[in-house]
Recover the amino acids of this structure.
């Protein structure tokens, strides 16, 4: 199919290419009769402007990139859904990149996004090793907001949840149910959210003289939870409760326990983290630490556009939300 060009429109309307450009970008500068003639030619020829070329000439696109740890995790789906309406209302479009919890893959995404001069970036980094790459984007006046991650010493806006407190909530709930040995399943520990949730859990266990056993996993997915349970069940003095670093891990743990005939919560209680929709719909509805997923995305997008609008006058903000425990059947029994 032959693509109609701006020259074709100019020829059909009997005007210069510059006049066609003005009709598209500065219509108030073109006489009404001429403007009508150009618009009629555009309609007749089915011309569609090459917006990407125009953006490249301007040095900036309308794309807001969101880089997530795992696109298969419904937590990140909800974060994107929270951000997208605000981006669209500002005339932008969202593109989602999946790092797969892989630093090298994340860096490839960042390099391409830098080349494309995206309008802005929302990112949940794999770990702190990507800081220099994120700074490179900032150096090209691409604003960056960290999502589900505190900014720490980095000069960026951020939205996060107090994951240490979230870990404490989970452990306190299990201790109050009478559990004296708790397992933590999740990893890798290089992911700050995992480390913070474990730290909160460990604090409560130490304060309550409860034994804590950690089962480190290579990822935060269904399979990781199921495999960790296989390891846990091999222990003679196995834990009576499990706190998982996210709900996907918890759902995998639930399946693993069920496959081995271990009753939940009668023989082993489970608490997840995130409170994705699947948690409440599980065969045994899952207790979970709830994060405001959509609000994280919405707030991150708002911080991004605030920075774009304010430019060098912008002051970075670090917004921290508080999690809450949602108790369901997976922890319903007291020992």
């Amino acid at each position: 199919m032959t693509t109609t060009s701006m020259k074709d429109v100019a020829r059909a309307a009997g005007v210069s290419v510059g006049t066609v450009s003005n009709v598209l970008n500065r219509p108030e500068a073109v006489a009404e009769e001429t403007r009508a003639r150009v618009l009629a030619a555009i309609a007749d020829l089915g011309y569609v402007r090459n917006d990407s070329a125009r953006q490249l000439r301007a040095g900036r696109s309308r794309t807001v990139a969101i880089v997530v740890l795992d696109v298969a995790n419904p937590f990140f789906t909800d974060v994107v859904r929270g951000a997208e309406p605000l981006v669209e209302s500002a005339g932008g479009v969202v593109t989602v990149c999946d790092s797969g919890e892989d630093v090298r893959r994340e860096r490839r995404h960042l390099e391409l996004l830098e080349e494309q001069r995206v309008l802005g970036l929302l990112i949940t980094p794999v770990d702190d090793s990507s800081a220099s790459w994120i700074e490179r984007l900032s150096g090209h006046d691409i604003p960056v907001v960290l999502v589900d991650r505190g900014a720490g010493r980095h000069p960026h806006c951020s939205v996060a949840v107090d994951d240490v407190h979230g870990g404490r909530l989970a452990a306190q709930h299990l201790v109050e149910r009478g559990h004296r040995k708790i397992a933590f399943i999740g990893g890798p520990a290089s992911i700050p959210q995992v480390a913070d949730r474990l730290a909160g859990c460990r604090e409560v266990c130490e304060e309550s003289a409860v034994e804590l056993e950690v089962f480190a996993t290579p990822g935060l997915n269904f399979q990781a939870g199921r495999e960790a349970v296989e390891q846990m069940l091999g222990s003679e003095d196995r834990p009576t409760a499990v706190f998982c670093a996210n709900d996907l891990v918890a759902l995998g743990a639930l399946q693993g326990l069920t496959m081995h005939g271990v009753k939940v919560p009668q023989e082993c209680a489970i608490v997840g983290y995130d409170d994705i929709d699947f948690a409440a719909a599980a065969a045994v509805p899952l207790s979970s630490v709830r994060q405001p997923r959509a609000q994280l995305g919405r707030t991150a997008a708002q911080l991004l556009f605030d920075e774009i609008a304010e430019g060098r006058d912008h002051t970075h903000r670090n917004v921290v939300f508080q999690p809450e425990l949602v108790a369901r059947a997976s922890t319903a029994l007291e020992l």
